[in-house]
Design a protein that fits this description.
heterodimer, A: Rossmann fold, five-stranded parallel sheet, four-stranded parallel sheet, about 15% strand, globular, B: Rossmann fold, 3 domains, 14 strands
């Protein structure tokens, strides 16, 4: 069961930067009726754990929860067995289960899955309805686990407890409680790390993992991009936790520091500077002189290679100005990437950013840069004033770009290629090249014959 | 195919879970229906995730910004609130935050969460000035098709005025959920060519039809508004298309018993369209316009042109019942063999499909039939499954969701015209996989 005490603890995470300035007990905001946008806690929990391809993810709830959400995320996996992340499993409860309880259905579903799909583990997600009617998911999972001799992990993040971020924290709690520390690794190295919070969307991780390998950093386990349940069970033996662009899993890292004495660093792999900086953060934390030296060499080599490839793009983009309107860490991470390509970022949105993200955005954009608090109303004016050439924003802003006759990239759309690591910058550069060259935005801004000039 | 265990058509499930589900939920159908109402604020009463999932789902399917709000029920309101508080707070918060938002009706649908706790959502109307429509759509009952139909019924039941008067040339179409925006427009225009003043409820023809305009995704932009809904009782004729929509037609007849109710399970293929045309001719006492006659001839030509390929082929269809029944009958009218129909939810209309296998299930069930068939008509999720299999089976994407293709809202399978396009699309796909596929 999820308790109020646990939620309170997670919402008041002491290690979280935007809780520092708040009074005791204030913590993160709970959703206000009508004002909450974005996914629920269940959504966040599912996002955090779903990339485990060797596990089956069973959603114990009515139809909406999984029916509308499966096979929507490009979290790639190299798992050689049956990839369960592209499949959807739900108990799809009906009126009967609401009245009489869904425990029997859940048990039968677990038996069915084990018999037919033989996964390494099963994650069972509670949802609003099954949490509300009080199904004893913990017990069903425990009995199932004993009967089938695989981990069956209950994840208690019903939608009504809060937003995506909280759900992600609750998923971290489930992993900590049921998986981490339940198995020993075959061997360890002094440079073993856990990657926390990279879900390998469009293969983001694969852009930087080869660099780790060159340097000699070993990824012991991942939560959860291209991850394996067997590996995360050994995570307590790592020397360092590396959080990638995900504040939500800070609680997990803090607790692992307390329980297993594993320190953590928080990094991002967007753009050249961030990638190099991230690598140095990791090797410095691991604290081995030879490793640090090796990392410096590899970085120098990779950056030189990248610079040569970027040269033609930089020529193309010289003097171009961009306005960026997106949320969270993308407000500065994409800005950083654009700057690496020689594009001036004149404004970015910090409407939904944490204090830390705002600070970072200011640092990247400099004193001249505009941090937009109300981007929807501000961006038009800024495009005019600064003579911007491109708007990078969500689909809703497309009309602004058309009206202003400038280029547009939808940065919130599910992307098909990675913008991560050094090479991701080349993918971003390609997208920008085509966006700048495309006459479509100017063409559709033309008046119809029946409209007055 | 002898070794495949036979699954019977039944209201009861044949296994405890769904693997690779095709069923979509009632509130999702209801939300879509409200988007087909002019200046409607679709409001989902549940935790924030319900609306968020539906919003992302439709955004990707239609490639359009989606107007959908939620009451974000939290743990405290889940226990203490009877519904009024979070709904009223949500309406207040949304309209206060965006003062340019002027909804003319609020369309509220419930979810599994708020039905489980048993919210009484009827009372909200007494606290607000904006017209309000509620529909009970727990997602542990029914599916997308029934959620959509229940919404049409609720709009009529709660807002259409009782009357005994009729306007002879006024006609209301009640299209089922799988009828896409352009198809609504085509059917309306078809009726108008007979001299009808035609309405559709819901009417997506000017909402989610892929039309570039400012201020998208704030409110529903359907072609029918609350004023028109109030006056629907004077329609002399109501045409329900799809079995699921009969409940909405019945609701209208309760407002005015003099209305003539025409029902069609679908408008695909020659037979049903002939019936449709003949009854329109009879009512208006006029000949169809020449374009209609022309399209019938084109359909007949298409049937002959495609009969060889389709007549020698096997099909598996998955989707909402009202969509499946039309496709089956059209394909069978040119000799196609339907191996299996796997429907999202139970509907009595499924009983009339004559095919080897007709049952309610998921893609795990359907996949067994994919190996032995020539063409699958299914949603986006079938694509990966077909990629994985040895046999080169063709796929035509229909139903929700279709994340792969652009322009879903402009696909037309209805009437003589759309049926013609559909047959050609099927035949061309069959030619591709049977004669130019990976094993040729």
């Amino acid at each position: 069961m999820v308790s109020r005490a646990k939620i309170k603890e997670l919402m008041n995470e002491s290690a979280c930067s935007h809780n520092k300035d708040k009074k005791k007990g204030e913590g993160c905001d709970m959703p206000k009726p009508g004002m909450a946008a974005g996914g629920c806690a269940f959504d966040g929990a599912q996002i955090s754990l779903f990339p485990y391809a060797d596990a089956v993810h069973l959603v114990h709830g009515p139809q909406t929860c999984l029916g509308a959400s499966w096979e929507t995320r490009e979290t790639l996996s190299s798992y050689a067995g049956r990839n369960h992340t592209v499949m959807g499993f739900t108990t799809g409860i009906t009126t009967n289960d609401v009245i009489f309880g869904g425990d029997k259905r859940l048990k039968d579903s677990i038996d069915y899955i084990v018999a037919k799909y033989a996964p390494e583990a099963i994650f069972v997600y509670s949802t609003c309805v099954t949490a509300m009617v009080g199904d004893d998911i913990d017990m069903t999972c425990k009995l199932g686990s004993q009967a089938h001799n695989i981990p069956i992990v209950p994840v208690h993040a019903p939608g009504f407890v809060g937003g995506k971020n909280l759900g992600s924290r609750l998923a971290g709690e489930a992993v900590l409680e049921h998986l981490i520390g339940t198995k020993e690794p075959e061997f360890t190295t002094p440079f073993d790390i856990n990657l926390i919070g990279d879900y390998n969307v469009t293969g983001d991780m694969w852009e930087y993992l080869p660099i780790f390998e060159k340097i000699g950093i070993r990824v012991l386990s991942s939560l959860s991009g291209d991850g394996r349940v067997g590996d995360i069970r050994t995570a307590h033996r790592a020397k360092l936790n590396v959080i990638v662009c995900a504040k939500s899993l800070i609680t997990l890292c803090r607790k692992m520091q307390e329980n297993y004495n594993i320190p953590w660093v928080s990094v991002s792999f967007y753009g050249k500077r961030d990638t190099s900086f991230a690598i140095m953060e990791i090797v410095n934390a691991l604290g081995d002189e030879a490793l640090i030296q090796k990392a410096k060499e590899v970085i120098a080599e990779e950056e030189a290679k990248l610079e040569a490839k970027l040269l033609p793009y930089k020529k193309l983009f010289a003097g171009k100005k961009a306005v960026l309107n997106t949320g969270g860490n993308k407000a500065w991470s994409i800005a950083s990437g654009l700057q690496d390509l020689g594009i001036e970022v004149v404004a970015t949105s910090v409407r939904k950013s944490t204090a830390e993200d705002k600070e970072k955005a200011r640092e990247y954009l400099g004193a001249e840069g505009i941090l937009m608090m109300a981007p929807a109303s501000e961006q038009s004016k800024i495009i005019d004033e600064k003579n911007a050439d491109i708007l990078l924003a969500g689909g809703r802003s497309l009309y602004t770009a058309i009206k202003k006759k400038i280029s547009f990239i939808d940065v919130n759309q599910e992307k098909k290629v990675s913008y991560g690591g050094y090479n991701g910058l080349l993918n971003l550069a390609e997208d920008l090249k085509y966006a700048f060259a495309n006459p479509v935005f100017a063409n559709v801004s033309k008046k119809a014959p029946w409209e007055e000039e | 195919m002898e070794n495949i265990p036979k699954i019977e058509l039944s209201k009861h499930e044949h296994k405890p879970l769904q693997v690779n589900p095709i069923k979509l939920s009632q509130p999702m159908g209801a939300a879509l229906a409200f988007m087909g109402i002019k200046n409607c604020m679709p409001l989902m009463h549940g935790s924030q995730g319900c609306a968020s999932y539906a919003k992302v789902f439709y955004t990707r399917h239609f490639n359009e910004p989606i107007p959908l709000y939620n009451t974000s029920v939290g743990d405290i309101t889940a226990i203490l609130d009877g519904g009024d508080f979070s709904i009223l707070m949500a309406i207040e918060n949304i309209t206060k935050k965006n003062t340019s938002l002027k909804p003319e009706i609020i369309g509220l649908c419930t979810t599994g969460l708020t039905e489980t706790k048993g919210d009484d959502v009827r009372n909200v109307a007494t606290h607000i000035e904006i017209p309000y429509c509620y529909v009970n759509t727990p997602d542990y009952e029914g599916g997308m098709e029934s959620g959509w139909a229940l919404t049409a019924k609720a709009l009529i039941k709660q807002h259409t005025k009782e009357t005994i008067e009729l306007q002879a040339n006024k006609l209301l179409l009640l299209p089922h959920v799988s009828i896409q925006p352009i198809e609504v427009e085509k059917i309306k225009e078809f009726c108008e060519s007979f001299g009808f003043e035609s309405y559709a409820l819901p009417d997506l023809s000017t909402s989610l039809d892929g039309y570039l305009s400012q201020n998208q995704g704030k409110l529903g932009t359907g072609a029918i508004g609350i004023e028109e809904i109030r006056e629907l009782g004077t329609c002399a004729t109501v045409v329900s298309i799809g079995h699921s929509m009969q409940i909405a037609a019945k609701a209208l007849l309760e407002k005015n018993p003099n209305i003539l109710h025409l029902h069609f399970d679908h408008l695909m293929g020659q037979q049903n369209n002939d019936n449709f045309v003949s009854v329109l001719m009879k009512i208006r006492q006029i000949q169809p316009k020449s374009f209609i006659k022309r399209w019938r001839g084109r359909l007949q030509d298409a049937m002959l042109d495609s009969h060889f390929l389709i007549g020698s082929s096997h099909f598996v269809i998955t989707g909402e019942p009202d969509m499946c029944v039309g496709m089956c009958e059209l394909l069978q009218s040119v000799g196609g063999t339907i191996d299996a129909v796997i429907a999202t939810t139970y509907s009595t209309v499924l009983e009339r499909i004559s095919a080897q296998n007709v049952f309610v299930g998921d893609l795990e069930d359907a996949q067994i039939y994919f190996e032995n068939t020539d063409l699958v008509i299914s949603n986006y999720h079938a694509e990966r499954l077909l990629h994985m299999q040895e046999r080169d089976t063709g796929l035509i994407l229909r139903g929700f969701p279709n994340y792969e293709e652009l322009g879903n809202q402009l696909k037309n399978d209805q009437l003589y015209e759309g049926s013609t396009y559909f047959l050609f699309e099927v035949a061309n796909k069959l030619r591709e996989v049977k004669y130019h596929g990976k094993h040729n």
